[in-house]
Amino acid sequence: MKFIGKTTIALVAAFVISGGAAAAEWEVDLAHSSVGFAVKHMMVSTVRGSFNKYEAKVIFDDAKPEALQVEAKIDVNSIDTRNAQRDAHLKSADFFEAEKHPQMIFKSKSAKSLGGGKYEVTGDLTMRGVTRQIVLKGEGFTPILDTPWGKKVTAARATALINREDFGLTYNKALETGGFVVGKEVTIELELELTKKNG
């Protein structure tokens, strides 16, 4: 196997800015969003993949950003690295063990504004039955727009750096020249378009 991914997560639908003063629920528009990851291969190149099935909801009050609530679920079996053999290996017990742990789950615990349109969301990521705290750093949001279909939308992006071995994904192979085939650090990359629910 050549590389591993992680992610996770769907996660950050996390930093939504609502147009109203009251708390509102937002959903990820799957057709215009992506939940991806990046990891080093052979210590030289960066390989990227994504998860094609996920769901997330965000409850946000723009008057109280610290009260943000985010919950996301990712279908591990939807992993896509543009290589069927690699995808099958990633789903196996060497990595995600998708048969026993078909979902990754993220639940936020706290959020704060860093200023300059940048945000930080701290929460628990559960992967392969292991839960660890991670920090998502995001930026946005775009101005809220009214679509021709009567919906309100905004967008944000976020990243997080995690160590896959913290979640039990320890498979690797040593290189004769030193180092390993699969990098330990994985970058979660989120590009999200968010739609206000019921509004």
By DSSP (H or I, 4+ residues per run), the number of helices equals: 1
Order of helices and strands: EEEEEEHEEEEEE
State the total count of DSSP E strands: 12
If you average the pLDDT, what whole number results? 81
Oligomeric state of shown chains? single chain
Indicate the proportion of strand residues. over 45%
Helix vs. strand class: mainly beta
Model regions low in confidence, pLDDT < 50 over at least 5 residues: 1-21
What spatial order of strands do you see in the largest sheet? 1-4-5-7-8-9-11-12
| Overall form | globular
What's the gyration radius in Å?
17 Å
C-alpha termini separation:
46 Å
What is the helical fraction, as a range of percent? Answer: under 10%
Main sheet attributes: strand count, strand direction, barrel closure? 8 strands, antiparallel, barrel
Structure description:
The chain is 4% helix and 50% strand. With 199 residues, the chain is mainly beta.
Describe this structure in a few short sentences.
With 199 residues, the protein is mainly beta. The protein contains one helix and twelve strands, in the order ββββββαββββββ.
What order do the helices and strands come in, and which of them pair?
Blueprint: E1 24-28, E2 34-41, E3 45-51, E4 54-60, E5 69-75, E6 79-80, H1 84-91, E7 103-115, E8 118-127, E9 130-140, E10 145-146, E11 152-163, E12 182-196
Antiparallel strand pairs: 1-4, 1-12, 2-3, 2-12, 3-6, 4-5, 5-7, 7-8, 8-9, 9-11, 10-11, 11-12
